[in-house]
Design goal:
Layout (H helix, E strand, L loop, with lengths): L1 H20 L20 H24 L2 H6 L1 H26 L6 H26 L3 H15 L1 H8 L1 H5 L4 H8 L2 H15 L6
Helix pairs in contact: 1-2, 2-4, 4-5, 5-6, 6-10, 7-10
Length: 200
């Protein structure tokens, strides 16, 4: 029951993230883009949208990879989806690392988002190296961490509802959102793994 609820939660989160991100492809000044002068640059907008789009691909694929029936009954499909997820994370992570250098909120935000991108890349590469080495359990563990970091985008959007719905200043919450979501998600992923949530 808990596993089913967890998977439903992942699917709902993925769908909600797609809905919340559509506006970034409809306007050049949507969301946080309207707060940045550099968003007027074609290369930045392209890099930003690459990060968002491929991040959405990774978020959308992730929940299916946790379905045991797909993993065992459709191994080729699981493998192909894994490759698409991996390439999406690698390209989204690299583009995220680039745009992190121009993040609002100064060095605190830049370092936070940069660390997120690097950790995201690291966990995903570790997952791929593990399965190539035939270590399935280790692969599951690192992919769980990887998707936890992918899901941090949803946790961040949830946190940013605070200044949107209240009179709380935006920048302090935005600085916090560069650190708290991914550290929290990584901690949750570790706890779930530690308690044998994905070892079976």
């Amino acid at each position: 029951m808990k596993r089913t609820a967890f998977k439903v939660f992942l699917f709902i989160g993925a769908i909600s993230m797609i809905v919340m991100s559509v506006h970034y492809f409809q306007s050049d000044s949507a969301g946080i883009l309207k707060r940045k002068e550099i968003a007027n640059s074609f290369w930045y907008l392209l890099t930003f949208r690459t990060h968002i789009f491929l991040g959405l691909v990774a978020i959308s694929i992730g929940p299916f990879q946790f379905l045991k029936k797909i993993r065992y009954n459709y191994k080729t499909g699981h493998k192909v989806a894994g490759y698409i997820y991996t390439m999406s994370v690698l390209l989204s992570g690299l583009s995220g690392l680039i745009i992190a250098q121009f993040a609002m909120g100064g060095w605190k935000t830049t370092i936070g988002f940069s660390m997120l991108s690097l950790t995201w890349l690291y966990t995903t590469i570790k997952a791929i190296n593990s399965i190539r080495g035939g270590n399935i359990l280790n692969h599951k563990k690192w992919m769980f961490f990887s998707y936890g970091l992918t899901f941090a985008a949803i946790t961040q959007r949830t946190l940013l509802l605070i200044p949107l719905l209240t009179e709380t200043p935006f920048i302090p919450i935005y600085q916090l959102s560069a650190w708290l979501p991914w550290l929290l998600n990584l901690s949750i992923a570790y706890c779930l793994y530690k308690h044998s949530f994905i070892k079976k």
